[in-house]
Amino acid sequence: MDAILNRHETPAAAAAAWLQANPSIKAQWLAGVRRFDGSPALANFPPVNEAAGQHGFEEWITRHKDPNR
After folding, report:
1. pLDDT exceeds cutoff 90 at 5
2. Residue ranges in the chain assigned as alpha helix (H)
């Protein structure tokens, strides 16, 4: 939340940075989780930088904020 509230990062960017800094926790979260096809979820998890590259309306608003408000 610090990255979002104080450094004004998008939630996707903050989450991607946190996941990259904490790979063991991500592995714990996904331990035993399987995809619909039965393959392990962790092996098929998208790369962190790929997830952070997704852009949407919220990011557009953040980039176009009026700094004088």
Report:
1. yes
2. 2-5, 11-21, 23-30, 48-52, 57-63
